[in-house]
User: Which sequence fits this backbone?
């Protein structure tokens, strides 16, 4: 249920279901869609009827194919439930996907966008249509795209990865669950805001915000150059810089400069080109040229 005053309706539905099962086989409905951050292969998909955030044994469950497609059969009497996708392998980021994405049943696909739609409905008591429109507005996309397949264009892919990787990153830094982060992002959904503002409005350190900006720039670049799979090592490196900056109470740039100076001799001795050093340190080319010549 959605926690609203629907308990009597739920009871009626349950009673009808029991009666139907006594007399005839319950009618079935099938929903089909895609589970995608990048496409999630071999992920568990279920219909979370009791909305406890888990796939229970008695709930309809299936697995995605190698392109993230799934088809799920469930009793026609179910109308208010949540689709979950758990685990599997992200075939674009080339990582095991250790997270849960959610979607209201109407959305059909399960993506970072639908996870934010679900969070908006939970957190702000928005209706499905309200949440779809608000999240579409925040992302600056059409409401059909917000419940569609986010991998079908580079623009959508960038937004989905920023949302999911940004949430993963903050969850790690703040030691929170990814559900908490989506909930906090949903709390910041107010008319006219864009995705970056949702993250900027979170109660996180200046350094964390700086890292997120760097991470978002990398996502843009890596999607454009079709190098999504190297985002993961970036995320780890940026996390390391952030931890060093926080530990030594310095700015992020100082932590990166310190890292560069440590690697400078090696880098120059090993003949690494400027581009590689940019990748290793996260600094821009101009800064590195100045440091190299200093």
Assistant:
């Amino acid at each position: 249920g959605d926690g609203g005053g629907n308990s009597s309706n739920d009871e009626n539905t349950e009673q009808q279901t029991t009666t139907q099962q006594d007399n005839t086989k319950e009618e079935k409905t099938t929903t089909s869609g895609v589970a995608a951050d990048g496409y999630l292969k071999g992920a568990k998909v279920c219909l979370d009827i009791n909305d406890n955030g888990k796939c229970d044994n008695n709930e309809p469950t299936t697995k995605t194919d190698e392109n993230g497609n799934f088809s799920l059969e469930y009793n026609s009497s179910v109308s208010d439930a949540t689709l979950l996708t758990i685990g599997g392998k992200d075939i674009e980021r080339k990582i095991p996907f250790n997270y849960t994405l959610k979607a209201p049943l109407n959305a059909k696909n399960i993506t970072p966008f639908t996870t934010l739609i679900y969070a908006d409905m939970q957190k702000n008591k928005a209706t499905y249509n309200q949440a779809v429109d608000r999240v579409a507005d925040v992302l600056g996309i059409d409401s059909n795209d917000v419940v569609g397949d986010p991998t079908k264009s580079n623009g959508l892919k960038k937004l989905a990865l920023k949302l999911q990787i940004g949430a993963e990153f903050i969850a790690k830094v703040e030691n929170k669950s990814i559900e908490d982060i989506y909930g906090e992002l949903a709390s910041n959904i107010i008319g006219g805001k864009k995705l970056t503002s949702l993250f900027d409005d979170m109660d996180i350190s200046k350094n964390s915000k700086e890292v997120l900006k760097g991470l978002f720039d990398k996502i843009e670049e890596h999607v454009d150059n079709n190098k999504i799979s190297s985002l993961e090592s970036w995320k780890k490196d940026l996390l390391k810089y952030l931890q060093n900056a926080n530990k030594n109470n310095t700015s992020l740039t100082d932590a990166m400069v310190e890292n560069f100076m440590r690697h400078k001799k090696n880098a120059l001795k090993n003949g690494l080109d400027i581009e590689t050093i940019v990748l290793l340190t996260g600094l821009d080319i101009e800064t590195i040229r100045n440091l190299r010549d200093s």
Q: What stands out?
A: The first strand starts at residue 28 and ends at 34. The mean pLDDT is 83. Residues 184 and 202 are 7 Å apart (CA to CA). The chain is about 50% helix and 15% strand.
